[in-house]
From TrEMBL:
Record-level Gene Ontology MF annotations: N-acetylneuraminate 9-O-acetyltransferase activity
Lineage: Eukaryota, Metazoa, Chordata, Craniata, Vertebrata
Protein name: CAS1 domain containing 1
Organism from which the protein derives: Ficedula albicollis (Collared flycatcher)
Alphabetical UniProt keywords: Glycoprotein, Membrane, Transferase, Transmembrane, Transmembrane helix
Stretches that traverse the bilayer: 284-302, 336-354, 366-386, 406-427, 457-477, 484-506, 518-537, 572-590, 610-628, 670-691, 703-722, 742-761
Length: 767
C-alpha cells in the first residue's frame, strides 16, 4: 500500500477534513483515491443535481481547467460530449435543476482575469456559488519560462487575491495549483514548461493567497490535491501536459465532495462533514450513564468502607475472630446493575467517539483478492489448530453450532472489512452464510419448543432481551433506526413467527405427538400454513408493507421513511427459517425412531447409505459453489438464492455430521467466537468498520496492518464484554418469578413509551 502523499501547504494546515481532502491522500490500487483521514463519497447524477439545484458554478482558466469543467458537468449529465470552442467560453445548463456551469477562457493570470473577477464583487451582480480558478502554463509557454513572466505573475495574482478573498465571503472559491508535466512527452512548443517552473509558480500562488487575509485564515481554498494525483498519473498523459480522464474525474469528484458533503450528508462521505449535534435522546442517555457511573462509584466506596469497618479481627479478650456483616441481596443486585451500566456507559462512549465524533480517521474500503482470501486461509489454519473432542456426538450439538457460527462470523467480518461485496462470487457465498444463521434460528428454536414444550413468557422475554438489548442501546446512543441493524430485526421477527406457529392452538409438542402419531400430521399442516403465508407475503409487497406500516411496527421497521428495505431483507432469505424448522422436525423424528446412529466415531447411517449421502452432499456443495461463482447479475442471483441456498447448507451439515470422527471433534477457536457472534456482528458497525460499515476505522494512521490488529483486538474485547453485560442484565431484568417479571415488563413498556415521546419531540424540533 502506498504511503501518504502530502502537499507542502497541508503540512501547515489544521485538522479540518476539508483541508485534508483538498491537499493530501494516496491511491488504493490504480484508480481509487483515498483522502487522508476521511472518506470520499462517489456521487450519482441525481445526488449531484440535488446538491447543485439553483446553483451557478464557474471555472476560470486554461485548457487544464477546461478538462476539469467537463469532468464536473459529466457528474450532472454523463451524456455531455467535450465539444465547443477550445479557446473560448463554454456554457452548460441543466434546466431541470436550474444548474448553470460556465467555463471562462482566461489562460493567463492578467488584467482580463482580474476584471472578470472584479465584476462579481461590485454592485448587485449575482455572484457564482462556486468559483474554480487556475492558470500558469500559458504564461510559461508564451514568455519562454522567463523570470520576468514569473515576477509579473506574482504581481497579477497579488492584485487578484483580495478580490477572491472578498468573493469567498459568500461563495466557495478554489485556486487550483498547476499539475506537474511529463517532460519527455511534451512537444517542442511546450518544452519550456518544466516541473521546476511549475513549482515556482505554485509556490508563489500559495504564499500570496495564504497572506491575502492578514487578520484571519485565508478563505480561498487551495486545491493542491490535483497536483498530487498528477504526480502518480501524468505518465499516462496523451501529450505530457493534460491529465488522463480517470485523474480529472477524481478531481471533479473531490470538488463535489468538498461542496456537497455538508449539504447531502452521505454516510460514506465523512470529508467536510461537521460532527452531528447531540440529539435530545443522546443527551438523556449521556446523563443516565454518567449517573450510573457516579452511583456505582458511591456504592463501591460505601461497601469498601463497610468492609473495612466490619473486617475480621481478633477479639483481644476471647481470641475469637469476628465475622464481617454480609451485605443484603438488594444492595448486591443494585450494585451489579450499576456496575453493568457503568461498563456499558464507558463502552458506548468509545462507540460514539469512533463513529460519531471526528476524533478518529476513517478510510474507504478497497477490495483485492488477497485482502479477502489470505485472512480466510489464516483463520482456517488457526481454527484447525485448536481442535478438541466434543462432549456429545449428536448432530448439530451445541459445540458444533457454536463452531459453525464462529467461523461464519469471522468470514463475514473479513468480507465486510475487505469490501468483498463488489466481487459477486464472494457475495453469493456470504449470502449463504447469512442464510445459515437464519437456518440455525429455525432449527434451534423449533427444537427447543418441540422438545421442552415451554411456551412461557419468561422464555420469550429472555430471547427477545438477549437479541435486542445491544441494538436498542445503539439506536439511542448512535441515533440510528432499529431497522438499520437489519439482522437483529430479522431474527427477532422469525423467532416470534416460530413461537406463534407452535404456540397457537393446538399446541403440538413431542410429548403429545409420541402418544398419537396423527399429531405429527397436525404439525406438518401448521408448517404448510406457515409456508403458504411466507409465499404469499414474498410476492405481495403491498400486503407486506401494510402489515409493517401500522404503528408501532412502522417505528421499528421503517428506514428512510418506508419499509422497502425491510421487505427486501426479509424476502432475500424467506424460506430458510422454514427449512431449518423442517430439518429439525425430520431429524428429531429419525432420532426418536433410532434410524440414525450418533455414537462416538460411528457414521450417521449404515456405511453404504452414509457413503452415498456423503458423495451427493459433496457434489451438491461444489455444484452450488460453481453456480454462485458463475453469477453475472446480482439481481437475478438474489431471486434464485432463497430457493437454492438450502442446498449448500444441508450439504454442509451432512458433510460435517455423517462421518463419526468428524462429528466427534470441534474447533474451540471458532466456538469461542461463535458464543459472541451476535455481538461481533453488531459491534462491527461502529468500532471496527466506520461510517456505519461504509468505511474502515483508523486508530493508527500510516500503519494499516498494525491498525487492523489493534482495532480488531479492541473490537473483540468489547464484543465479549458486551456479551457478559447482556447475560448479567438478562438475569436481573427478566426474572423467573411471574409477578416480578410482569412489573419489569410494565417498566420496559414505560421506558419505550418515554423513548417514543422524546423521539417525537426530537423529530418535531428537527422539522
Amino acid at each position: 500500500m502506498r504511503d501518504w502523499i502530502l502537499s507542502p501547504d497541508f503540512l501547515c494546515s489544521g485538522g479540518d477534513t476539508c483541508e485534508y481532502l483538498l491537499s493530501s491522500g494516496r491511491f488504493l490500487g490504480e484508480k481509487v483515491w483515498q483522502p487522508h483521514s476521511c472518506m470520499m463519497h462517489k456521487y450519482k447524477n441525481s445526488e449531484a443535481k440535488n446538491c447543485l439545484i439553483d446553483k451557478h458554478v464557474v471555472f476560470i482558466g486554461d485548457s487544464r481547467i477546461r478538462q476539469l469543467f467537463y469532468s464536473f458537468i459529466k457528474l450532472i449529465n454523463p451524456q455531455v460530449k467535450e465539444e465547443g470552442i477550445k479557446h473560448g467560453n463554454i456554457p452548460f445548463e441543466d434546466k431541470s435543476a436550474s444548474i448553470k456551469v460556465d467555463f471562462l477562457w482566461y489562460p493567463e493570470v492578467n488584467g482580463s482575469m482580474r476584471q472578470r473577477i472584479k465584476s462579481w464583487t461590485e454592485g448587485s451582480v449575482a455572484k457564482p456559488h462556486i468559483i474554480v480558478v487556475g492558470a500558469a502554463t500559458w504564461s510559461i509557454k508564451i514568455h519562454n519560462g522567463s523570470n520576468e513572466a514569473l515576477a509579473q505573475y506574482k504581481i497579477n495574482i497579488t492584485s487578484i487575491a483580495p478580490l477572491l478573498e472578498k468573493l469567498a465571503i459568500s461563495s466557495d472559491v478554489y485556486w487550483v495549483l498547476q499539475d506537474p508535466v511529463y517532460e519527455d512527452m511534451l512537444s517542442e512548443s511546450r518544452k519550456m514548461i518544466t516541473n521546476e517552473k511549475i513549482d515556482a509558480y505554485n509556490e508563489a500562488a500559495v504564499r500570496i493567497l495564504n497572506s491575502s487575509s492578514r487578520n484571519s485564515k485565508a478563505r480561498v481554498k487551495v486545491f493542491s490535491v490535483s497536483k498530487l494525483i498528477a504526480q502518480e498519473t501524468i505518465m499516462k498523459s496523451v501529450d505530457g501536459l493534460h491529465l488522463p480522464e480517470s485523474s480529472r474525474d477524481t478531481n471533479a469528484m473531490i470538488l463535489m465532495n468538498v461542496y456537497c458533503n455538508k449539504i447531502v450528508k452521505p454516510i460514506d462521505g465523512s470529508c467536510c462533514q461537521p460532527q452531528p449535534p447531540l440529539t435530545l435522546i443522546q443527551k438523556i442517555a449521556f446523563c443516565f450513564f454518567t449517573l450510573s457511573i457516579i452511583g456505582y462509584l458511591i456504592i463501591s466506596l460505601i461497601h469498601r468502607n463497610n468492609y473495612r469497618k466490619n473486617k475480621s479481627c481478633t477479639d483481644l479478650e476471647s481470641g475469637e475472630e469476628k465475622k464481617p456483616v454480609i451485605s443484603t441481596p438488594n444492595v448486591s443486585t443494585l450494585e451489579m446493575l450499576l456496575h453493568c451500566f457503568c461498563k456499558l456507559g464507558l463502552i458506548m462512549t468509545y462507540f460514539y467517539l469512533c463513529d460519531r465524533a471526528n476524533l478518529f480517521m476513517k478510510e474507504n474500503k478497497f477490495y483485492t483478492h488477497s485482502s479477502f482470501f489470505i485472512p480466510i486461509i489464516y483463520i482456517l489454519v488457526l481454527g484447525v489448530f485448536y481442535t478438541e473432542n466434543t462432549k456429545e456426538t449428536k448432530v448439530l450439538n451445541r459445540e458444533q453450532t457454536d463452531e459453525w457460527k464462529g467461523w461464519m462470523q469471522l468470514v463475514i467480518l473479513i468480507y465486510h472489512i475487505s469490501g468483498a461485496s463488489t466481487f459477486l462470487p464472494v457475495y453469493m457465498h456470504i449470502r449463504v452464510l447469512v442464510a445459515a444463521y437464519l437456518f440455525q434460528t429455525g432449527y434451534g428454536h423449533f427444537s427447543y419448543f418441540w422438545i421442552k414444550g415451554d411456551f412461557g413468557v419468561y422464555r420469550v422475554c429472555q430471547v427477545l432481551f438477549r437479541l435486542n438489548f445491544l441494538v436498542v442501546v445503539l439506536c439511542i446512543v448512535m441515533d440510528r433506526p432499529y431497522q438499520f441493524y437489519y439482522f437483529v430485526p430479522l431474527v427477532t421477527v422469525w423467532f416470534m413467527i416460530i413461537y406463534a406457529t407452535l404456540a397457537v392452538w393446538p399446541q403440538i409438542v413431542q410429548k403429545k405427538a409420541n402418544g398419537n402419531c396423527l399429531w405429527h400430521f397436525g404439525l406438518l399442516l401448521k408448517l404448510i400454513c406457515l409456508l403458504t403465508c411466507i409465499y404469499f407475503l414474498s410476492y405481495s409487497q403491498g400486503a407486506f408493507e401494510k402489515i409493517f406500516s401500522f404503528w408501532p411496527l412502522s417505528k421499528c421497521f421503517e428506514l428512510n421513511g418506508n419499509v422497502y428495505e425491510w421487505w427486501f431483507r426479509w424476502k432475500l432469505d424467506r424460506y430458510v427459517v422454514f427449512h431449518g424448522m423442517l430439518f429439525a422436525f425430520i431429524y428429531l423424528a429419525l432420532q426418536k425412531h433410532q434410524m440414525i446412529s450418533e455414537g462416538k466415531g460411528d457414521p450417521l447411517f449404515s456405511n453404504r447409505v452414509s457413503n452415498v449421502l456423503l458423495f451427493i452432499s459433496i457434489v451438491s456443495f461444489l455444484t452450488y459453489s460453481i453456480w454462485a461463482s458463475s453469477c453475472k447479475n446480482k439481481t437475478e442471483c438474489n431471486e434464485l438464492h432463497p430457493s437454492v441456498s438450502v442446498v449448500q447448507i444441508l450439504a454442509f451439515i451432512l458433510i460435517r455430521n455423517i462421518p463419526g470422527y468428524v462429528r466427534s471433534v470441534y474447533s474451540s477457536f471458532f466456538a469461542w467466537f461463535g458464543k459472541i457472534s451476535l455481538e461481533l456482528f453488531i459491534c462491527q458497525y461502529h468500532i471496527w468498520l466506520a461510517a456505519d460499515t461504509k468505511g474502515i476505522l483508523v486508530l493508527i494512521p500510516g500503519y494499516p496492518m498494525f491498525n487492523v490488529l489493534v482495532s480488531t483486538f479492541i473490537f473483540v474485547c468489547v464484543a465479549h464484554e458486551i456479551s457478559q453485560i447482556t447475560n448479567d442484565l438478562a438475569q436481573i431484568v427478566v426474572p423467573k418469578d411471574n409477578s416480578t417479571l410482569l412489573k419489569r415488563l410494565l417498566c420496559i413498556a414505560g421506558f419505550f413509551s418515554g423513548l417514543h415521546f422524546f423521539s417525537a419531540m426530537q423529530d418535531q424540533s428537527r422539522h
